[in-house]
Amino acid sequence: MPLSFVELAGGWAPAGAEFGFILLVGDPPPPGTAARLALDALAPQPGCWLSSGPVHSARFCQRAFDGLMHAGLASMPEPDSQPRALEWEAILQKQWMLAGKLRQLAEAYLTERVGLLPPYSAPLPETAAHYAANLARTIMLALPDSRDWAALQNELAAHLQSRDDARK
Fold it and tell me: pTM for the complete prediction?
């Protein structure tokens, strides 16, 4: 008798307690099976879980969501009662570094699990027609590679320098 396997991923730990969690399922079981009943019991309501695609897709989605949440939470310092200037260059550098890591994660998922990188010819290949592949493709298309980040940083620095020179 073959073993059935369902991949589960979710952010139950500290951040999940504060921000909620999403139950991600890779290779979901068919309706009526014991595994499907277990998923429904773990979810806030029956059926309230996300089928992210084949095996390994749930873990990829969890890592991508964790990275995006970290980017949002780490972008600004903790509020306190003291006014202070933002160290925007350091904040921006951290965001660019995280964006590069997210892009690498997405590229690795598409290369290893889907077998091809965008752009895809129409119609969409069947191996790329699931939630995790769509998320990875969106990350890759939305975040340019790290060489573009360096060029953007140089352009921004030049603009700020010319603005400062004009004020003198």
Answer: 0.74
